[in-house]
Amino acid sequence: MISRIKSEALFAEALNYIPGGVNSPVRAFRAVGGKPFFVNKASGCRVTDVDGNEYIDYVGTWGPAILGHAHPKIISAIKTAAEFGTSFGIPNPSEVTMAKLICSLVPSVQKVRMTNSGTEACMSAIRLARGFTRRDKIIKFDGCYHGHADSLLVKAGSGALTFGHPDSAGVPADFAKHTLVLPYNETEPLQATFAANKDQIACIIVEPVAGNAGLFVPKPGWLEFLRQITVENGALLIFDEVMTGFRLALGGAQQRFGITPDLTCLGKIIGGGLPVGAFGGRADIMDYLAPLGPVYQAGTLSGNPLAMAAGIAALEELGSCTRESAGDIVPRSLERSCDAYTRLDQLGALLETGMREAAKSAGVPAVFNRCGSMFCGYFASEPVWNLSDAMKADRERFKKFFHGVLDAGVYLAPSQFEAGFISTAHSEADIEKTVSAAAKVMKAL
Ligand code: KE4
Questions:
Q1: For the domain that residue 16 is a member of, what is the CATH number?
Q2: Is the CB of 304 under 6 A from ligand 1?
Q3: Could you tell me if 325 and 354 lie in one domain?
């Protein structure tokens, strides 16, 4: 039996000073029961808790650790940058390097503004879309998460075609009413919503691959439909790629699926594990931002030199870009930059095959959704295309499975409604160990 007495003591102490003992709710293990472990260190694809237990990590700090934890090039970049100061509040060269890198790797991004979180990026992109179109209403999808800004903590109203209702205490109904919440992967509700709200919808914001209710992959043609219906109605299309950006391809989901959004939100990977976010897109829209235009947005630590150094190191490692030609950074060779993504796809396929076989041999109904190195297994017997499908999954079975594999040294996301992430630091042996542990646990479910 795994001992976690030091974690338990720390959690008891944390509860006295931090609400729920955590600085972000999902970490509290409330969706799976039990108490969270406290990490002591992380390296490569493994995390070690304060009791010395080691786990193969498939959370990867919720996405940023695509190269594994404590990658030497990222650590070295942070150490070097820190010698020159930790924050300036003054323009510095690393902000320009980061902006050029993002604009060269994500062609739809002609200009980009850094923030300190994905929440800020999405909140600011929506404000910009409203300012640019002079419209108030926005469309989001059930099960998609775009951070915790008031107008995004909204659930589908009774008549989704009318307005949303707050999904959190403290959000006034007036803040939620302009947010229309529709089912992911469906087209009719969108057509009806645009028809019922002619010339009133500023934008659609969507996770092109949804990783915040497990994992939903877009049905063939659905993203193209979003692009078309927004053009037809004078609304903007915002891809929230905080999770998928630089995760599903060097150019993100928009490269993988061949869609050009008007605005893109980024985060996670571009900070190399340090606090970061960004939003960017068409220059004519981005120039509506202060100090040029009338849409205000700001941040004391935006473009922080340590986060920029860590993010640049991560993107260079992923894209094997060179910094020398900072003026027109292009990957040394796209083939080389695809090495990381080819590897991630291979490992993802190995995990998917193994998990499907494990469930089949255990006679456990399970669905395994995957896109590249993002995945989610649901204990469900029908395909999962959106939140209503995901809600049918057997969460009790997931809880038992989560703890079973955790005790076997595999750390999955502590909720049925979260995605898992594979890094370039995972090996075939790690995947095989994971599948073998899962097979044993599934047999006992
Ligand atoms: P942050 O404010 O947490 O940096 O980013 C918000 C956000 C925006 N958009 C997408 C697609 C996201 O996935 C996120 C944050 N993702 C969650 C993981 N489900 C962060 C984990 C947490 O809240 O602790």
A1: 3.90.1150.10
A2: no
A3: no
Record the pTM. Answer: 0.95
Do 175 and 316 belong together in one domain?
yes
- Is the CB of 241 inside a 6 Å radius of any atom of ligand 1? no
Domain count within the chain: 2
Per-residue pLDDT of the chain (445 residues; tens, 9 = 90+): 789 999 999 999 999 999 999 999 999 999 999 999 999 999 999 999 999 999 999 999 999 999 999 999 999 999 999 999 999 999 999 999 999 999 999 999 999 999 999 999 999 999 999 999 999 999 999 999 999 999 999 987 666 566 678 889 999 999 999 999 999 999 999 999 999 999 999 999 999 999 999 999 999 999 999 999 999 999 999 999 999 999 999 999 999 999 999 999 999 999 999 999 999 999 999 999 999 999 999 999 999 999 999 999 999 999 874 333 334 444 444 444 458 999 999 999 999 999 999 999 999 999 999 999 999 999 999 999 999 999 999 999 999 999 999 999 999 999 999 999 999 999 999 999 999 999 999 999 9
Domain stop point among 298, 331, 364: 331
Domain boundaries, position 39: 5-69+337-444
Q: Is 136 a catalytic residue?
A: no
- DSSP letter string, 34-101: S----EEEEEBTEEEETTS-EEEESSGGGTT-TT-BT-HHHHHHHHHHHTT-S--SS--HHHHHHHHH
- 244 CB near ligand 1 (under 6 Å): no
Q: Please name the residues in contact with 138: beta carbons below 8 A apart, sequence gap of 6 or more.
A: 126, 129, 130, 151, 178, 179, 180, 201, 202, 203, 204, 205
- Our answer to whether residue 145 is catalytic in this structure is yes
> Helix or strand or coil: residue 23?
coil
- Please give the distance, rounded to the nearest whole angstrom, from the Cα atom of residue 128 to the centre of ligand 1: 20
Last residue of a domain, one of 303, 331, 359: 331
**How far away, in angstroms, is 442 Cα from ligand 1 center?**
29
